[in-house]
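Q: A reviewer asked whether we had any structural model of the full assembly, not just the individual parts. We don't, so I'm hoping you can provide one. Inputs are below.
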Amino acid sequence: MEKHITLPLTEELAMSLHAGDTVYLTGTVYTSRDAGHKRMCEALARGEQLPFDPTDATIYYVGPTPAKPGQVIGSAGPTTSGRMDAYAPTMMRVGARGMIGKGARLPEVVEAMKQYHGVYFGAIGGAGALLSKCIRKAELIAYEDLGAEALRRLYVEDMPLVVIIDCEGNNLYQIGRARYLSEHKEEVRND
Amino acid sequence: MREINIKEIIDTVERLCIEANQHLPEDVRAALCAFRAREDGQIACGVLDNIIENYGIADRECVPICQDTGMACVFLEIGQDLHITGGSLTEAVDEGVRRGYQNGYLRKSVVADPIRRGNTGDNTPAMLYTEIVPGDRLKITVAPKGFGSENMSMIRMFKPSAGLEGIKDFILETVETAGPNPCPPMVVGVGIGGTFDKCALLAKKALLRPLDSHHPDPYYAELECEMLEKINALGIGPQGFGGRTTAIGLNIESLPTHIAGMPCAVNINCHVTRHKTEVL
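A: Here is a predicted structure for the entire assembly that you could use as a starting point for your response.
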């Protein structure tokens, strides 16, 4: 299914998405990677507020290149999500619902997604120049000292994504591979 | 004796850092396009089309193909009849990397300490390899290496009794474990033989070889073809969404080894397999 969706990612919207859907996403997303997640989770543990309202928020796992003069942002493709697995359940517990990245997630992240109705979207790894075209605004909001890993608020328009894991725990990495192998049984005899 | 001043080396490394990050080698692009023609799934084809479009944007607009502009792996082949003047060669390479990553708007992705972290702010130090060769030339190759794929690489010290089957299983196991994480379609570099450290270096060097080339020994050339075919029967596909195109190339480099050993290293790269060379 091809869907055009507008953020914030409400519970109702999240539940309408299914693993394998192609999605064009419009709205505000927040960028964070390893170091930013670590800081946010430490802030939450101290009882502090996050630098943005996490309710129904979507976090894009990205560390962009610096913008050239005239650019909104540099190349901005996804980083490997698994490194955020240690923090993702905490982020969902405080209200964040969407995650954009690439690569496998741990079972505890999928369990948290089922519990809090989270959605894991895949952006194409290694297509940073293309993805930067969908980013209309970029604003630094916290942790400037982290450089590429600083927290940014982005406004994206029709960002091309695929739902990898939906809030029922269906996983395109498993479904897509199994489908390919069953459709190509003759060719893929691996002796 | 021929002389090269380090100024020329700094300028060349700077330029190679920038160009390698913006313009993909033609053999890699051609391999990706050839696999696209053979792919049939809707999602898989869509992903490969976007990847090809991304190469075009980066090339035309001179922007990085990928935001992970990597650690700068720099390979120098230094002619033994060449004299380098004007200062330290190692510092010259780092200065070239510093300028390239600053002036080319590339991401600074290096931390000063592996455990205590802390970004160095200029993407130095380079991972520098030098080799002394006959002649009076200096061959400089810059290969920016992203870590989404580097993290999925493996090395194993086999007993010789594990034989060819052990090597084959290990290559497949590494790719299978990597799965969707290294942004497939991948390029796979395999090192076989040498010592623990040399074996890993062979695997990295295998990633520098054109994808339309083969190991000079037909035994390993056949193994390259066989393993690429086996990897593409795994069904992982572009980005791990399922499909025929899991890897667009597999190169093997080999060396003699010890009577007691059979090391094998598998260095995984993504489809953005970047390297650029210049001879001074």
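A: Points you may want to mention in the reply: Strands of chain B lie at 2-5, 71-79, 82-85, 127-133, 138-145, 154-158, 186-192, 247-254, 262-269, 276-279. The radius of gyration of chain B is 19 Å.
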